[in-house]
Fold Triacylglycerol lipase.
Amino acid sequence: MGGLMYLLVLCLGIIMQINHCLSNSMIMKCLPRKHGALFIFGDSLFDNGNNNYINTTIGNQANYPPYGQTFFRYPSGRFSDGRMIPDFVAEYAKLPLLPPYLHPGHPEYIYGVNFASGGSGALSQTSQGSVIDLKTQLSYLKRVKNLFREKLGHEKTKELLSKSVYLFSVGSNDYGSLLDPNSGSLLPVDHQQFVDIVIGNLTNVIKEIYDLVEENLGCLIWVLLAAILA
Ligand SMILES: *[C@@H]1O[C@H](CO)[C@@H](O)[C@H](O)[C@H]1NC(C)=O
Ligand SMILES: *[C@@H]1O[C@H](CO)[C@@H](O)[C@H](O)[C@H]1NC(C)=O
């Protein structure tokens, strides 16, 4: 845990130093060289409202009271009565609160964006059909990259993505699904094989992000419940 905190502090150093001339159209021109963004992946520990915009079950959504009552004063879709880890990370990095990716009307994502979806896991079978699985979250990052390339060009996109922080909370729903008699039978393997599959899929996503960023991956943090539980 101490190591994680150290890493977090180190990573936040990378994305701090932002100035505030972003509302005009020449977005990147006034960003200092150190500008990086924050990209959030994972499950209900990080979802800040994406599941509001998908067809899912009420158990996978948090858009009703008493959620949200102590800070936002409305149920934003966070599985919390207040802010959550990504909100505090953004705050300490002097970034604005990130939008959920599926929220309409945030075309820039210049400070980053949140792709997390409550109920999701590293495996596409986990809560299949009622969540945005990790691979789909990855495909959203690819879309954001394309958007950046259209607006900023190749070099600046590369620079921005390589200075960004990628924060994950993944794994507990995969393991939790084993307790659910309806979904546990999807993968007829023993516990160690199941752990290997979860870690294998997560590793693939991390590798793809590494390729997407092209080089100099700034910082990648796993709040890796999978590894702890395994
Ligand atoms: C939403 O999901 C339910 C249950 O799976 C299904 O019956 C319904 O048609 C879906 N609605 C839309 C708009 O896709
Ligand atoms: C990823 O998960 C699928 C099941 O969704 C599994 O068949 C596959 O072997 C896993 N991949 C790795 C690299 O572990």
